[in-house]
Amino acid sequence: MDVKLPKLGEGADSGVVVGIFVKEGDTIANGQAIMELENEKAVASIPSTAAGVVEKIYVKAGDRISVGAKILSVAGGGSAPAPAPAAAPAAAPAAKPAAKKVAAKPAPVVEDDEPVAESADEIVNENPFASPSVRKAAREFGIDLHKVAGDESGRITAEDIKNYIMRLMRAAARPAKVVAEAAPAAKPAPVSVDFSQWGPILKKPVTPLRKVIARRMSESWNSVARVTQFDDIDFTKLGELRKKFAADYEKKGVKLTLTPFVLKAVAATLKAHPIFNSSLDEVASEIVIKEYIHLGIAVDTEQGLMVPVIRDVDKKSMFDLAKELETLAAKARDRKISADEMKGGTFTISNQGAIGGAHFTPIINLPEVAILGLGRGAMKPVVRDGQIVARLLTPIALSYDHRVIDGGSAARFTVDLVKAFENFDEALVKI
Amino acid sequence: MDSIKTEIVVVGAGPGGYAAAFYAADLGKKVILIEREKKLGGVCLNRGCIPSKALLYATHQIVNSRESAHRGITFAEPKIEVDKLRAWKGSIIEKLAGGVASLAKMRGVTVITGRAYFEGSNKLRVETEQGQQFVEYDKAILAVGSAPAMPKAFDLGNPRVMTSTEALEVSDIPENLLVIGGGYIGMELGFVYSALGSKVTVVEAMDAILAGADADLARPVVANAKKSFKEIRLKARVTKMATVGKQIKVDSEFNGEKLSELYDRVLVSVGRVPNSADLGLENTKAVLDEKGFVKVNSQQQTDDPSIYAIGDIAGGILLAHKAHKEARNAVENIHGESGIFESIIPAVVFTDPELAWCGLTEAEAKEKGVAYVISKFPWSASGRALSFDRTDGITKMLIDPETERVLGVGICGAGAGELIAEAVLAMEMGATVEDIALTIHAHPTLSETLMECAEAFYGHATHTFTKRKSAE
Lengths: 431, 472
Known about the structure:
- The complex is a heterodimer.
- Chain A has helices spanning 132-140, 158-173, 175-182, 208-223, 236-251, 259-272, 318-333, 407-422, 426-429; strands at 2-4, 14-20, 27-28, 33-38, 43-47, 52-57, 64-66, 70-75, 226-234, 278-281, 286-289, 295-297, 299-300, 305-306, 309-310, 347-351, 370-374, 378-384, 387-401.
- Chain A is an alpha+beta fold.
- Chain A has three domains: 2-75, CATH 2.40.50.100; 113-173, Dihydrolipoamide Transferase (Irregular), CATH 4.10.320; 210-429, Chloramphenicol Acetyltransferase (2-Layer Sandwich), CATH 3.30.559.10.
- In chain A, helix 6 (259-272) packs across helix 7 (318-333) and helix 6 (259-272) packs across helix 8.
- In chain B, strands 1, 2, 3, 4, 5, 6 and 17 form a seven-stranded mixed beta sheet that branches. Chain B has a five-stranded parallel beta sheet with strand order 8-15-9-10-11.
- Chain B has three domains: 3-147 and 273-334, FAD/NAD(P)-binding domain; 152-270, 3-Layer(bba) Sandwich (FAD/NAD(P)-binding domain), CATH 3.50.50; 353-457, Enolase-like, domain 1 (2-Layer Sandwich), CATH 3.30.390.30.
- Chain B is an alpha/beta fold.
- In chain B, strand 4 (115-120) and strand 5 (123-128) form a beta hairpin.
């Protein structure tokens, strides 16, 4: 049984093999990470879709491989991938002349939004078929059916054509892409400067991850009407709570940092201000308010910025959050994080406190509408009840998309956020 | 002389030409339709599809009456009045041609009767009974069709040597009829004349009758022809013909022997040639291929941007329904829409039994290296076929083993020409063989053979037992 590269998600259909975790002769389990692939989205570990003994490995580090490429073959065991393929109804127990080869859908890294083929030669549907009226519609819109992903057998419906057009429109609405791809003239042509004329230099290739960061930052920069609101939050109580319970957490093998406090406080504030937990759907002219709270945590890694997402923060205990944060941050730094684990965030937190610096103006992680940046907390003189006292003050910066959120809402959010931190409920921390 | 100006002129009022003219008019264009004959409808209506089907129907009654004795129904030997038969056939043509003319009138399509000749890319001269008439147009759609081929060696100038045109007139019932060419025209007319009482001999140069169809599908037709005709000679060749009194002396080679025989009539059905001569096409930029067909691109446009060509004159498969589709495509392209031929063209041979197919034949699949699995359902297992004594039929499907899509369908049997429609729709809709198997087909009908053929693919057709193929 062959293990092939599964679908990676929107806009990603190929990647460069960073490393392979298994060797020929190894016994692997279904779902076990077998290799690491770097693409324009992230570095993701790729799980096996079969179990058994690795017979042969077809790829090596440095190879650029595409979705569907054979990675390795396994012998024995060979169980089916997690979700069963959409098989034909079991009306036909009798022998079939030939097996119906429905491509097994890989479990983990599938994104609901199909990729839109953006280049002329990008074929997503090798064997498209559609009714005459659908073919006619496609002809009239100048759509090559090979670029429209149908169902697993390649069948394309009128709905698929409609969705494809919608995605094209959405893609066209992404300003950065337009600048980068459609209208290069709008951007000054890049000039190559010979920096070595002024002294010794070192050249490094721009990694795919760096390219993604660059593209996404430009997208946000070019499309969002960003405003950043500053404040300082009194972290004294939080610091005390952390100290008080750190040992308890430690005993259970988890380090209690300030981040779970931040997650909890932010989640509570988002609940009260759902507009900050929304996205702007420009195509449908709708603001999508999410009823779940999935928080992205910006993690600084050697390769660059990564944003793993912690799901349902409002429903998890401090302890679980602390534990999850630890594993996720480690995974991100070791580049073991899957693309799936970086998707679906509703609001991002960028905490630079551990490094240093005060206020900064974070860039919104599209399609979210707000981001909270935290600087390094420091003891500062504060007037409390007419007295000057020393308190631990942490600089915070809330960037929000003014297309969706007005200044008043942002100010109210900040006020509530400050309260959530300063009146943090001890019961939440206790374990 | 003044010219008439129009947006679209259609030359030729066959099933392609009038369809183009009507559709263009329906889309709001000013249209002129030029036809050299007084009756509209072209070969199909006047000398092809329609009269041949009328004759086949009529003569089939003769066969039926003769074959009822074992059902306890006996008829007297039928009396055949050829003049009345011809008149009845003619009345059908009249009705249809009149219908086409009135449809043209209702749409405001101007019909000019006369021969059209291109003076240039945007100007036609029409020779009418009233004299010359010039037509200036933006776009022309050429739909002048084809005519039966008559090789020079066979063209004795003797009306006893016929093409399909004359054979459909049924001037008399020859005692001995030689059919040269075992394609669909020769075989259909062979059945007409054999039912009327002629002793029919078919001479075919190739090693198969109805060579376009798969041999297993043609087999029931060949079997019935062997029963009804005097003889079918494959790999045979007519070398010479000469008039001898009221007969035709035919020299031929068959089985390494030289034969010399006398026939009362000879039907030459060896193909059709395009009507591209004497049209003045040399005054346009349109280009002909080596066989004389007008070259067109995928939009039906000739090398002259003002001139489109559809139907037989544009080559490919010479079928009225292909012309009809091309007519719509040509008009859509002129109208700024996009019409491209990517349709499945069914083929129907109205022999007894009928033979119809669509999509890939098995021979084509083999030649193209397309992977396929065959499923067949014999009509001997169909209750409906048994109920009218026509179990000499077969329904066959070519299936892509990987996707289970239907690649081609062939049907031989009574009414196959009607049955194939379901297969064409199934293929156009991208149906899988399972889709057909899961669709209820009324009982008892011949359409069930399609469902059971699809079921047989899975090894569980109700009315036939397929040995289970080795498990997956």
